[in-house]
Amino acid sequence: MKGLKKLALASTAALPMVLGACASTGSIPSASAPITQTEAQQGAEAHPQLLQEFGGAMTGSTAQYVESVGKGIAVQSGLGNARDSFTVSLLNSSVNNAFAIPGGYVYTTRQLVGLMNNEAELAGVLGHEVAHVAARHSQRRQAKAQQNSILGAVGAILSGVLLGNSGIGQQLGQTFLQGTQLLTLKFSRSQELEADTLGIQYLNKAGYDPRAMATVLQSLAAQNSLDASIQGRNATIPEWASTHPDPAGRVREALQKAQAVGTGGVTNRDTFLTRIDGLMYGDDPKQGVIEGQRFIHPDLGFSFSAPNGFYMINGTTAVSINGQSGQAQLSLAPYNGNMDSYIRSVFQKLGGQNTQLAPQTIERTTVNGLPAAYGSARVNNGNSQVDVTVFAYEFANNRAYHFVAITPAGQAGTFNSMYQSMRRISSSEAASVVPRRIDVVTVGSSDTVSSLARRMAYTNAQEQRFRVLNGLSSSDRVTPGQKVKIVVRSR
């Protein structure tokens, strides 16, 4: 969640090639076919919007390293002028993700790079995304999207949980995808496996250990499970919210494919660890940070807490709050100094052009010294009903922020504690928010997993976090001279 200008809900309608629904695979076009002018134009148009939505492109030596590895593996795809035709970006995002769009645009987040343990794994992830480009998977999704836009599809899926299948369900479902970084839906399973296969072949041709595809998938599966455990939710991510679903189910298959092409090749572990030493890990304070149940934004000067049993996802344009009994999102809209019109405009946007959605009443209040107002509306959807609540706050300098919440009818009070927790923070509180970074250290003669884990800059699950970060199983030990990653606070 960035500064004021970045907080507006992003319009995703202009990104059909990224957001298109999954399509089944057909025959793969020739891998030697160069990227077409049309594909290059599509990618160039979407690229700036994606950078904005996913925190922007990072610069510096680590970004240059990622770009070099990505272009190197792209050459193995056989696409004409592969090195020059691909744009590889390291994104300033705390979500574990990588994706690609037509025109040779490949992306990976710094969080996913931080989870990796060697250069071969980095090449494997980027090669997997290059394979999506080479096999024209996005174009097949785009063709399907022209029949059924992804936002409508996702709204319909969300409506199956809370909203029914009406138009209002689609509009409200759309709201909870914007600004959460859950923007690129998965390819079909067959397309993902096809990209795994091609990526493994690229690794082998480039001289890397092809087993790296399996090990990075294993780390991603372990991180998935750890995140779910810490957040108190089921480890299974809803398919609509995952670009690369169920990585654990693909680990064994990727390993079998790797063994079929050969088990030799380099990993370049030490080089990789040297290049990512100091990389930011977790939330960027400039986008706000999540600490347990609390969200704090030092630049914008506010904080709030999610209810117990809910977990948050911090996007570059909004914060989403998710749980079994409802969903909410904090964002902003244009504000002219009138809270009533502000809230009504949010409801109008939620309802869309074809639906009249308005609060029954708008109530004024004060929350921790902040002028606030709120309104609710009950929406009928066949056999079910939901309550939609907008709770807005007025800040200085003509700024306003608001929560939008959806709960089953009669349960609008689910988020009351969150609404009442919104407050300004002091300058000292803001100054105390510092980023976490990866620190690559050499294991000493007296070091153990436990002693190293105690240096992790977290108050919970230190050893589990350390093991997942370093690709260690529950029984693995560390040895003197070995390089490992820990996460520390940096000032």
Description:
- The chain has 491 residues and is of the alpha+beta class.
- It folds into three domains: 9-281, no CATH class; 288-431, Protein Transport Mog1p, Chain A; 436-489, Membrane-bound Lytic Murein Transglycosylase D, Chain A, CATH 3.10.350.
- Helices cover 39% and strands 20% of the residues.
- It has 18 helices and 17 strands.
- The chain has helices at 16-19, 37-53, 61-74, 82-85, 110-115, 119-134, 137-145, 150-163, 167-175, 189-206, 212-231, 248-261, 269-276, 339-351, 416-421, 427-431, 449-453, 462-469; strands spanning 87-91, 98-101, 105-109, 280-281, 289-291, 294-297, 302-305, 311-314, 319-323, 326-331, 362-367, 370-381, 384-395, 399-408, 423-424, 436-442, 483-489.
- Strands 8-9-10-14-13-12-11 form a seven-stranded antiparallel sheet.
- α3 crosses α6 (119-134) and α11 runs antiparallel to α18 (462-469).
- The radius of gyration is 23 Å and the shape is globular.
- Residues 3-30, 143-169, 177-185 and 237-245 have low confidence and may be disordered.
- This is M48 family metalloprotease.
What characteristics describe this protein?
491 residues, alpha+beta, Protein Transport Mog1p, Chain A, Membrane-bound Lytic Murein Transglycosylase D, Chain A, seven-stranded antiparallel sheet, four-stranded antiparallel sheet, 17 strands, 39% helix, globular
Which stretches are low in confidence, meaning pLDDT under 50 for 5 or more residues running? 3-30, 143-169, 177-185, 237-245
Summarize model confidence as the mean pLDDT. 81
Number of domains: 3
Give the spatial strand order of the biggest sheet: 8-9-10-14-13-12-11
Which percent band covers the strand fraction? Answer: 15-25%
Please describe the biggest sheet, giving its number of strands, its sense, and whether it closes into a barrel.
7 strands, antiparallel
- Structural class estimated from helices and strands: alpha+beta
How far do the termini sit from each other?
21 Å
Rg calculated over all Cα atoms: 23 Å
Helical amount: 25-40%
Organism: Qipengyuania oceanensis
Pfam families: LysM, Peptidase_M48
Cofactor: Zn(2+)
Domain LysM: 439-486
